[in-house]
Amino acid sequence: MKLNRFCPGPVSRRGFLEVGGLTAAGLGLSDFLRYEAHASELQANHATNDNSVIFVWLPGGMPHMETYDMKPDAPMEYRGEFGPIKTNVPGIDVCELLPRHAKIADKFAIVRSIHHEFSDHGGAHKRMMTGRRPRIPNGTVNDAPATQCIVKDILGGTSGSNGMPTCVATMDKGRDKVDTFAMGSAYLGAANTPFFVGGDPNSKGFKVDSIGVKQSMEARLDDRLSLLQGMDRLRRDVDEGGIMSAMDSFNSQALEMLTSDEVRDAFDLAGESDKMREFYGHHTYGQRVLLARRLVEAGSRFVTAVLENPFPGKAIPKNCASNWDCHAVNCHVFEDCKWRMPVYDQAISALIEDVYQRGLDKKVMIVVASDFGHTPKIKASRGNKSKVMQPGRDHWPKAMSVLVSGGGAQMGQVIGATNSKGEHPIERVMSPNDLWATVYQHLGIDYNDYLMNLDGLPMQILPFGKPIKELAPMA
């Protein structure tokens, strides 16, 4: 019975790091201000462009053997039911369930040789999100800041003149917690977590709380601002240490987001034509990555789009899983792929095409990744929902595939390779750090620089790793 234990994938818990909660994080005001000042200093010295990243996260582990690293000549118990199809780039094949990918392979690159050592969802999330080997191999409470938090610390809380949040993370309702996917800020403090947006962008009632102010609220907001300004003047009169003056920057950022029509409009998918929304697909995957494109176009610098259940609120087929965790106890891996992959194929290919059609492919880098791959060898077990024996794949951090598009780099290429059974890299062996070094370089951030932890000790942004040379921007 132990072999049939349900694997829920990344599990949320009530975290103590909440957005904006200084006391909840144990972060003192003086520490907070010190980090705000340090972020400004880093931004001035080391942020050299206004590029952005759309980071698509697939929790549970995308099966590389059913997507971007197929092994048609491997034994049946490895290669599975699906075959590869040719793309518009000679020599690059993808799974037959990804026909839209096949038409635009000249606009993306596949990295097949990233790997790490953590086979638990928690450890893998922390390893992938932070660029560090976590001290604890499970759980999703970070002991090092996630990349999103480092980016926010360096680039500041808002971007541009319109007050767009620098870092945004979008996911299903109830999953929008800092610890669900190891997006915690650790020693950088709660103020540096992304702006979380939970909910289904495809639903009619989708809205983002605390963004924009309706006309009916403007008078009350003006009254409250007048009151706060009066209190601030009074408090500044008795503020010997100048703390209130230092807080002005943070308060203005929050107010800028609250009152900006441009911010509100960026989060409103009604601004897209029916044709464009149909192009992306009327499902959570499509509308979430469409929202990500709107946000980076409006000025956000790092937008994470978490893709789990493509149809939240609807019954999941009994032989399918809620996310990408394709154990046999969770789902029939091939039936799950037939249900999930067409939605994924439409969403990702539409995002890539749209970015290129808008001329954003040099400024925007798209990265699609997950916590790990899944076992090359198929294993059968009794499904917890289906109650019948079915094939599946288990956790496998020794090999995974990552898709990268844009960033001004050469596309239409495969970087690295695994062995004939998809078990481990044999060419261009890389770690998650090489991927993050590539991302930081694209954002104009010196990944060799240092941040200060809460003890005032320098911590290197990325302890090791180098940008993937094949993804360097073309001259």
Features:
475 residues; alpha/beta; Alkaline Phosphatase, subunit A; eight-stranded mixed beta sheet; 12 helices; 20 strands; 32% helix
Structural write-up:
The chain is α/β, with parallel strands linked by helices. It folds into 2 domains: 32-209 and 262-471, Alkaline Phosphatase, subunit A; 213-259. It has helices spanning 29-46, 76-79, 99-103, 121-130, 147-155, 215-237, 243-259, 261-266, 274-280, 284-298, 333-357, 432-442; strands at residues 52-58, 84-86, 93-95, 109-114, 158-159, 164-165, 167-171, 195-198, 302-306, 364-370, 373-374, 379-382, 389-392, 395-396, 400-406, 413-415, 417-418, 425-427, 450-452, 458-460. The strands form 7 sheets. The protein has an 8-stranded mixed beta sheet with strand order 8-7-9-1-10-15-4-16, sandwiched between helices. Strand 5 and strand 6 (164-165) form a beta hairpin. Helix 1 (29-46) packs across helix 5 and helix 10 runs parallel beside helix 11. It is globular and about 55 Å long. Residues 1-5, 11-36, 213-221 and 240-250 have low confidence and may be disordered.
The first-to-last residue Cα distance is 58 Å
CATH C-level class of the largest domain is: Alpha Beta
Mean pLDDT, rounded to whole units? 86
Tally the beta strands: 20
Looking at CATH, the homologous superfamily of the largest domain is Alkaline Phosphatase, subunit A
Query: Helix share of residues?
Result: 25-40%
